[in-house]
Write a structure and sequence with these properties.
alpha/beta; UDP-N-acetylmuramoyl-L-alanine:D-glutamate ligase; ten-stranded mixed sheet; four-stranded mixed sheet; 8 helices; 14 strands; binds adenosine-5'-diphosphate; binds sodium ion; transferase; metal-binding; ATP-binding; EC 2.7.1.15; carbohydrate metabolism
Length: 301
């Protein structure tokens, strides 16, 4: 199996449970508080590592307690952190309030993530190509450098263009495989949010691909639709009891990268990633909801 290098964010999610979300100017008492490792980069790296890929997370942590906790968490998950810089100031942080109905309010503080610098990529030798995977929770210029470096070095590059940043539209043509959800697709392709598989495929066809392998759109309970060359491929999701879809997209991206790194072809890798994401939605949380390789393979059997 080849390896997966994720260039992405790591955040400490500080999660307070509240009876209802506070109004402007209001103070409310929380019923509980939890610190949970998060950030799209870390979540996707955990998904890839649990699927069995040798995995590294590059980016930046602060020299604070949260940074130390995040590094220890990534170590426990078997994720290499040698190129996760330790910079002055706080680590990335998300302040999350969740009410009794599960509705939330989230404030993200970029912290150290804003200082992340794209790592160098060694030129590819023989064998399956290593996979480079990025998202948009790091500076856009650095993500662009990373994708260009991946192309020069012959790596297979994946971009999960999330969150949707209109100013990052120029990057969506850079990776070998672009992954977006319906909302992000609407922003980057310049249309309304598609309803269903056919509308999503039609809208995705408007995105520039420059000969890249595929554009992949995740559709929640409808699974994914992928434009691969001239073909449109729909992989439906399993019908499962949903506990919380937080992290489903991150699970999909990380496992897709890992499956490609082990040499699966794109269609097989999409099916593997959909199976994994269908398991993640049955468990609470994001990073902690990522399934193990054996669970994903059992789901596919
Ligand atoms: P995001 O969270 O980024 O918006 P999606 O909601 O599209 O991403 O979910 C990503 C993937 O997770 C989907 O393509 C699907 O495979 C899986 N998934 C999400 N929601 C469900 C669901 N309700 N039932 C089964 N699978 C789901
Ligand atoms: Na989940």
């Amino acid at each position: 199996m080849s390896h997966v290098l994720v260039f992405g964010s790591a955040n400490m999610d500080v999660v307070a449970r509240v009876p209802r979300l506070p109004l402007p100017g209001e103070t409310l008492a929380a019923s509980s508080l939890a610190h949970v490792p998060g950030g799209k980069g870390a979540n996707q790296a955990v998904a890839a590592a649990r699927f069995g890929a040798p995995c590294e997370l590059a980016g930046a942590l602060g020299k604070d307690d949260h940074g130390r906790s995040l590094a220890a968490f990534l170590d426990r998950e078997g994720i290499a952190t040698g190129r996760l810089a330790r910079v002055e100031g706080p680590s990335g942080l998300a302040l999350i309030a969740i009410d009794a109905e599960g509705e939330n309010q989230i404030i993200v503080v970029a912290g150290a993530n804003a200082q992340a610098q794209a790592p160098d990529l060694a030129p590819v030798g023989g064998g399956p190509r290593p996979v480079a995977l990025a998202q948009f929770e790091l500076p856009v210029d650095e993500v662009e450098r990373f994708l260009l470096a991946a192309r020069r070095a012959g790596w297979l590059s994946l971009l999960n263009a999330a969150p949707a940043l209109a100013e990052a539209t120029r990057l969506v043509a850079l990776p070998d495989i672009l992954i977006v959800n319906e909302t992000e697709l609407a922003v980057f392709a310049g249309g309304r949010v598609p309803a269903g598989v056919d509308e999503a495929a039609a809208l995705a066809a408007r995105l520039p691909r420059k000969g890249a392998m595929a554009t992949v759109v995740t559709l929640g309970a409808d699974g994914v639709v992928a434009l691969v060359g001239e073909a449109v491929l729909h992989v439906p999701a399993q019908v499962v009891p949903v506990v919380d879809t937080v992290g489903a997209g991150d699970c999909f991206c990380g496992v897709l990268a890992a499956a490609l790194a082990e040499g699966q072809d794109l269609e097989a890798a999409l099916r593997t990633a959909v199976a994994a994401a269908g398991l993640a939605v049955q468990r609470p949380g994001a990073a902690d909801a990522m399934p193990l390789r054996a669970q994903v393979l059992a789901q596919l059997a």
